[in-house]
């Protein structure tokens, strides 16, 4: 199946700093990518839908100024957590939709963020 | 708003046992339903995808069924093995939602020797 990578796999940062997470589709072009957040022992919650060349669509309750999403190319979407706080500590997972198979989303391995 | 619930939340079975995981959803206007496996601290691995017009899908020791009218899906695992230990998530995609998935609460499975 298709491969989606995330970088970094884990990051520790100080409160108040910004952290950028990259999501790449390695063997297909993804016009749409999705960003999820998962707290310990909870399920995945969709944060936003990232569309190549246009603004992201955020889910209710997700602050677009805090979680900046950029989808500048068909193989790369980035999520920047601005002015991170300890409550932003979570597991962030991206997925990419393969346009040749509309139903199929391929998930990245996730990025664990710890804000001290 | 679509809500997806999985029962049980956790399950421990001895190796070799057959087991069933349950998933229920409140809005039956789904496009498809997917079962995933997640190992601790890892991403998701897709196991089975059932289209709304289908009633079941099989892959090896896994069989997933879908009853759209009652808002239920089950994942049957035959002859469980310790390597099956993981969290199992179901996710539904509603029609007309551009691939947006709503995930269930998950079932943590432990298969013991």
Structural features:
heterodimer; A: 116 residues; mainly beta; 7-stranded mixed sheet; 4-stranded antiparallel sheet; 0% helix; globular; B: 113 residues; 6-stranded mixed sheet; 5-stranded antiparallel sheet
Structure description:
The complex is a heterodimer of chains A (116) and B (113). With 116 residues, chain A is mainly beta. In chain A, 0% of the residues lie in helices and 53% in strands. Chain A contains no helices and 11 strands. Chain A starts with a strand and ends with a strand. Chain B has 113 residues and is mostly beta strands. The model of chain B has no long low-confidence stretch (mean pLDDT 93).
What would a concise description of this structure say?
Chain A has strands at 4-7, 10-13, 19-25, 32-38, 44-51, 57-58, 67-73, 76-81, 90-97, 105-107, 111-115. By secondary structure, chain A is mostly beta strands. In chain A, a hairpin with a 2-residue loop joins strand 7 (67-73) and strand 8 (76-81).
List the helices and strands and how they pair.
The complex is a heterodimer of chains A (116) and B (113).
Chain A: E1 4-7, E2 10-13, E3 19-25, E4 32-38, E5 44-51, E6 57-58, E7 67-73, E8 76-81, E9 90-97, E10 105-107, E11 111-115
Parallel strand pairs in A: 2-11
Antiparallel strand pairs in A: 1-3, 3-8, 4-5, 4-9, 5-6, 7-8, 9-10, 9-11
Chain B: E1 4-7, E2 10-14, E3 19-25, E4 30-38, E5 44-51, E6 56-59, E7 62-67, E8 72-77, E9 86-94, E10 101-103, E11 107-112
Rg over C-alpha atoms of chain B, rounded to the nearest angstrom: 13 Å
Q: Helical percent range of chain B? A: under 10%
Give the total of beta strands of chain B: 11
Q: What would the principal axes of the Cα set say about the shape of chain A?
A: globular
Tell me the number of helical segments of chain A per DSSP (H or I, 4 or more residues long).
0
Oligomer: heterodimer
The ordered string of helix (H) and strand (E) elements of chain B is EEEEEEEEEEE
Greatest interface by residues involved: A-B, 26 and 24 residues
Q: Tally of extended strands of chain A?
A: 11
Proportion of beta-strand residues of chain A:
over 45%
Per DSSP, what share of the residues of chain B sits in E-state strands of 2 or more residues? over 45%
Structural class assignment of chain B: mainly beta
Kindly state the mean pLDDT of chain A as a whole number? 91
Provide the structure class of chain A: mainly beta
Helix content of chain A: under 10%
**Helix-strand sequence of chain A:** EEEEEEEEEEE
Which residue ranges of chain B are poorly predicted, with pLDDT under 50 across at least 5 consecutive positions?
A: none
How far apart are the termini of chain B?
41 Å
Helix count, DSSP H or I runs of 4 or more residues of chain B: 0
Characterize the biggest β-sheet of chain A. Answer: 7 strands, mixed
Integer-rounded radius of gyration of chain A: 13 Å
